[in-house]
Amino acid sequence: MHGLINRSFQCFLRETYGERLWTSVAEASGLPPEGFEAMMTYDDGLTYAVIASASNALAKPRDALLEDLGSFLVSIEPLRRLLRFGGADYVEFLHSLDELPDRVQLALPDLVLPDLVLTPISDTRFELTIHSDQPGYVPAFVGILRAMADDYGALALIDTRDSVWMTNKIGIELLQKRFASGRAFDLTHPEVA
Fold this sequence. Notes:
The chain has two domains: about 5-60; about 70-175, H-NOX domain (Alpha-Beta Complex), CATH 3.90.1520.10. The protein is about 50% helix and about 15% strand. It contains eight helices and four strands; from the N terminus they run αααααααββαββ. The chain has a four-stranded antiparallel beta sheet. Strand 1 and strand 2 form a beta hairpin. It starts with a helix and ends in a 17-residue tail after the last strand.
């Protein structure tokens, strides 16, 4: 697994649950306290050991933990900007998801995301299929899709039929395109903190 994915999970745990939790998860997984290096590649088994250790430490299902990770990722402004380049509204964003792996590879050639295929069922219903042999992408994308709906101000029902750890399909139903005012976004002027 690419180190950036692992490092993102590490940052999520540290920022959300604190340094103490991260230290115990790293120790239980056989990692040094400093954790992952973003530009290295790690054995997938180590990634899953960290996820399992965090899930156990928090008494939280893997699906829910990875969904929270997806929401957390949208709070990182450079990633949010990358996602928002997908369209002016949530539906345009959804239709741009199949291009996301290529956009990510422009910035990080070594980071390979799974193929994403959006299938429109109707004007307001969609199905996103995530083609990957690695479990965990689906729950993270559920979190990303929910956070991006909020970011655009849309009201959407995001769901899977099965455990998100075991499926590769996400159902999306757009209930209201303009439910609330979304977060400010300008392609030409990034927000300065």
